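Bit of a strange request maybe. I'm writing a small parser for structure token strings and I need a real example to test against, not something I typed by hand. Could someone generate the tokens for this chain?
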Amino acid sequence: MSDGRRLERFVRTKLRRAGAQYEGLRRSTGEQLEEARTAYEGAKHARSLPTDEAGRAKIVCRRYAEQRAAKLDDEFRPACYEHGHPDCEGCIEDVRSGRIETW
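Reply from user aminoacidic:
Good idea to test on real output. This should exercise your parser:
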């Protein structure tokens, strides 16, 4: 094999590898950016909820259909949240999307 062909094969191999690394990085960055946007939107909506004097969010509980003042944790879940309960899961989605009923 001539030196020219070897050099060409070497360069092609390196360029393909660099292209694959770039594509992986680009995909990862895009996913991280989308996660950050979603987190920002959720935080923005949760922070805009009306609160009482103690800093608790004034929400209407979907599970018991009553007005509640509840502290929100780091993931914007009210203190009364029960994992896996459909009404509680829906409440979290509503808080993050800004559709939660308040008083």
